[in-house]
Specification:
Blueprint: E1 2-12, E2 18-29, E3 33-38, H1 44-51, E4 59-64, E5 67-68, H2 73-79, E6 80-84, H3 96-102, H4 109-122, H5 138-151, E7 156-160, H6 168-179, E8 184-188, H7 192-196, E9 200-205, E10 208-213, H8 215-226
Parallel strand pairs: 3-8, 3-9, 6-7, 7-8
Antiparallel strand pairs: 1-2, 1-4, 4-5, 9-10
The structure holds adenosine-5'-triphosphate (ATP).
Adenosine-5'-triphosphate binds near residues 21, 41, 42, 43 and 44.
Length: about 240
């Protein structure tokens, strides 16, 4: 369960004024599949960074499974896994085996290697255990990033445009893996077909939630917005 309780983010801008990235927002996300859509720069990643505790709200509070991200940041980060569009941003080790093993550092060394091998074989990267990460294809890198994140067994996965850089085949592969996960997955996406498969869609515009509800209703609002309608005229009452 993810909760925003009047949570907002404002930063000091270059001119010494303040800039609101997310207006105070109250939201409880308990659905297993949530999609967040919105234009570039609308505040989607800000919302995700709040939920993983990387960013603390400047007003209100954010709770993950009841833990306040401001007070219990380290424990929250233990509960939440993050997957970004660009796997380069999160692959830290020289080989796939070492990268997955890093997420398993709580295990004794031998078990760590065995478990990392098992996980890589399961996702189809068994033939690439020791291949330099830099030489993997983009799709293989994203699959590795996902495997490393999941190895830590997060309770919640936040995926920020996880398939944006993938070709159709890799996109389908990564989406199928994400769809099959037992844990809650919140996905930021520009892919409206993927968003339509969620149980709930949240639409962000100008740092505000402007629609929130079933995919059909919320995506209708988003399409209206993208067609140039101001939020107050775009389809409302998505819930
Ligand atoms: N630390 C910061 N200081 C100033 N402005 C910021 C900061 N972080 C984000 N912003 C601005 O806040 C706005 C929202 O950014 P955010 O990354 O949340 O958007 P987004 O919806 O995820 O966009 P995209 O789809 O392009 O990734 C942008 O205009 C961005 O430049």
């Amino acid at each position: 369960m993810l909760e925003l309780d009047g949570a907002g983010v404002a930063v000091v801008d270059g001119e010494g004024g303040t800039r609101t990235l997310l207006h105070p927002t109250t939201l409880t996300l308990s659905e297993r599949r949530v999609a967040v859509v919105g234009a570039n720069g609308s505040g989607k990643s800000t919302l995700v960074r709040l939920l993983d505790g990387l960013l603390t709200p400047t007003t209100g509070a954010v709770r993950v499974h009841g833990l306040d991200t401001r007070r219990d940041g380290a424990r929250v980060r233990g509960l939440v896994g993050l997957l970004f569009a660009d796997p380069e941003a999160q692959l830290l080790m020289p080989t796939p085996l070492e990268d997955v093993a890093l997420s398993l550092r709580h295990l004794p060394r031998r078990e760590r290697t065995e478990r990392a091998t098992e996980l890589l074989v399961d996702v189809g990267l068994g033939g690439h255990l020791h291949q330099p990460v830099a030489t993997l294809s983009g799709g293989q890198k994203q699959l590795l990033a996902l495997t490393s994140v999941l190895a830590a067994e997060p309770a919640v996965l936040l995926a920020d445009e996880p398939t944006t850089l993938l070709d159709l085949r890799w996109k389908a592969h990564v989406e199928a893996l994400l769809d099959a996960l037992p844990q809650q997955v919140v996905t930021v996406t520009h892919d409206l077909e993927a968003a339509a498969r969620a149980e709930r869609v949240v639409v962000v515009d100008g740092g505000r939630i402007v629609a929130d509800g079933s995919p059909a209703a919320a995506l209708a609002t988003y399409r209206d917005l993208m067609a140039g309608l101001p939020p107050e005229l775009a389809a409302r009452d998505a819930r």
